[in-house]
Write a structure and sequence with these properties.
Ribosomal Protein S5, domain 2; Alpha-Beta Plaits; 10 helices; 7-stranded mixed sheet; binds L-homoserine; 26% strand; 4-stranded antiparallel sheet
Length: 306
Amino acid sequence: MEEVRVFCPATIANISCGFDVLGVALDSVGDEMVVRKTEKKGVFITKIEGQDLPLETERNVAGVAGLALLNRTNYTGGFEIEIYKKIKPGSGIGSSAASSSGAVWAMNHLLGSPFSKTELVTFAMEGERLASDVAHADNVAPALFGDFALVRSYTPLDIVPIKAPEELFATVIHPQIEIKTSDSRKILKTTLTMQTAIKQWGNVGGLIAGLLQNDYDLIGRSLEDYIVEPIRSILIPGFDKVKKASLDAGALGAGISGSGPSIFALSRGKNNAEKVALAMKAVYETIGVEHDIHVSKINHEGVRLV
Ligand code: HSE
């Protein structure tokens, strides 16, 4: 096999309580990439459609992630990459992670899958380091594994895949502003009180238990963030109103998607997720915020061939 075309899912990182350790992959929002083998050694970005992003390998997240993989193989050739971007960079649904993960998944596939998914996460994290100055894994892990992924530990890297309950749907609204992850990390506090930590890890445990037990109410009760959301939400137009409207419309819970500005909600069933979408949309139409909106089921396999 010389060439593959892959779907690279968008992802919601943090899921309210799990800053830098939890993420989930979406099924109907994502990029596509074509990756093909070349005789010449190296990683070459030959085409990017949909967004204005750098073609130079060292400045492109897919290029950097791809080089990290290539440097760990004995393969004497290289790879060409075409990127068809549908996810807007800086939207908070894992744009850079989709590109990094898609590149390394496709290369691994073309080489006969010598690397495990966790190894692919370590390569894709190099793309995140380039994009946000921090090699966080909470977007690339779900992009590669599908479903929910828990980063139990970074050193050593320990990814725990968690299957999503079948009826869980996500609604994501993206106000048309860009927030760079690196900027939205700089404003966070670096210390917290024991009382806050206790409340937060109660919710992380509750969310994982809720997902494993298909307990939708427990999932909803656990979607609370005492650490990051109070600070970052100030950057997002109408955040409190959108969150309240989605809860009033029946969402299990809602919060900031990754580093924002997108706002996500989780719901039980597609109908509810669509009602939540209408409620979120109504808020932005009333206060005059340009936006796009997605309703998606949860992606169960991560990056896949198309
Ligand atoms: N955990 C990261 C952050 C995700 O919130 O900064 C960025 O998408």
